[in-house]
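Aim 2 progress update. The chain analyzed this quarter is reproduced below.
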Amino acid sequence: MKKIIRYTILGAFLIGGFTSCEDYLDKAPASSLNDSDIFGKYETFQGYEDQMYLYLMEPLAYPNGGMWFSDETHATGSPSTSYLAIRGDYWNLLYNGGAGVAGNTSLFFSNQQGGKIGFWSGSWYGIRIANMALSQLPTLEAAQTASQEQKDLLKGTALFMRSYFHYTIMSIWGGMPYIDTLLTTDMDIRYPRLPLKVGMRRSVDDMLASAQLLPASWDETADGLLRPGANEGRPTKGAAYGMAAKALLFMASPLNNEGYQYDETLCKESAQYGWEVIKLADSGYFKLMNVTEDKGDPGDNDYKRNFVGATNTSSPYTKENVFARYFNWAYTSDNAMWYTISKLFMPLSSRGTAQCVAPSQNLVDLFETTNGKLPEDDPTYNPLKPWVNRDPRFYNAILTDGTAMYSNYTVQCYAFDQNGVAGRDFGSGQSQTGYYMKKYWIYGCVTGGNKTGVNANTPHLRLPEVYLNYAEALIAAGYAPTTQPTFANGETGISALEAMNTLRHRVYTKTSQPILPDLDMALNGGQGKDGTVKGTFMKKIWDERSVELCFERSRWIDLRRWHVAHLDKYRNIYGMRFNKAQTQFEKVLLDKIVFEEKHYWMPIPTQQIGLFKDYKQNPGW
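Predicted structure tokens:
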């Protein structure tokens, strides 16, 4: 019988290259486990599949990581991923971005096997495990030990994860082979790269197939009824439909179409599957969390619990998470906090290091006032009190000068006082924008503070993104903002305007009243592809997306798929210079992102190129 070690060693299209599988297997240690030991029972089969979750990437787990490669942040030091991306150094980003501590590897690529091995390497590992699981379903069938529901759960999970990992690779590197069979050393594995739409369509097909097998909630399965809440984080029907809609919108976006225009047919299809998730939310399976001004403690803030745990030991989780990996590595004074979160966005005065990644003025300017207008369009906006009366999401995401993060700790990021001396937390190796990132940082998590550890998480798909994807797809498909679409299955969905206002209605004041006004129904439709035409509904969607999903590894993907990342508007990174008394403010240009046409796709690791003639490098690399 085959040894189980063979199922955990990954072959072609993985980190060792297309031809290394046989050598790797020859070195496998002996094991007494065989096929039926692992795949003959539901519990052990599921245990095998659970390895896939290790390869769902969490950029926050990298000491100099984070997937902030665009105009929403500014970085001051290498080897942070943001610093390398700003300089267009994608080769260095590919191999070294995010590294910096013994045992840690690049955010994208690694020759190691294990959990933190990067988007490229980890995704191919995950695909291999999914294909192995699917190939072993007959073993479980023959054993006659599992119910039909259990077999459906195993198959649905494997299909979902195979699709998700392929989507991850293609969204970063473009069209790839779609590996939907278990590769062995005696196979001809010279697979050419598929056009992106062909490969992405196969990913969507897998995702939709998984939606037919996965439950709306694992708590409604036989196993879940016995162990309520024990399966949080596993893919569901809603996650499958949501990811199918997301993949279709990526396919439909200007980057991937002739003339850099949206594909209206694919947009309509995307909206239809987004509507499936919205219906599940209406039935109580998901829920938008109310957003209030951040009091610093996620225990008092439902929205904050999407990103950090409410206690030192709890994982970030709300019903707003459609799909998420619950990252349980606490950042504390003696472990991860020193090596991950601190290096990313804390000041030197609070366990930080000189690789600070700080929010840009570009992003700050996209947060509306409480009147529902951008600062530049609101006559009541006071430029000498720029952070007053802003969308409550601003106070959850952005840390401003003078904000207390503990009883004895206040952030000081002013550029100069009456003597020309900068604040303690401003300058070289620290924030040069005048802001710090707050989304993953909570009150008390400072030197001498009362938080010894906090779990952080970047959701893979939240319900707000489902609404945003849905609205964007409808407008791009040619629907007016107020038009309710009729889908191919005969159902009528909500309009783009209704979707956007549903999202905005859960932004609350301190008195628990909705604060953001409805979007103007008179706004015209139109693609507004360059994002500069004021008044277009699409620009409102883009702006709302930039605010709601800030720092959630969305902005870089979005600017690329919209094909606007090369424009100066999105390359110039600004900060704010102000004095300690906050009576003088000046918007200043800090950096200009190096972004050419080749930067729309990451380079493929050189180890993978040249193995056979049909496998080509991305243009320009």
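Residues 1-30, 329-339, 524-535 have pLDDT under 50 and may be disordered. The two ends are 45 Å apart (CA to CA). These observations will guide the mutagenesis experiments scheduled for the next reporting period.
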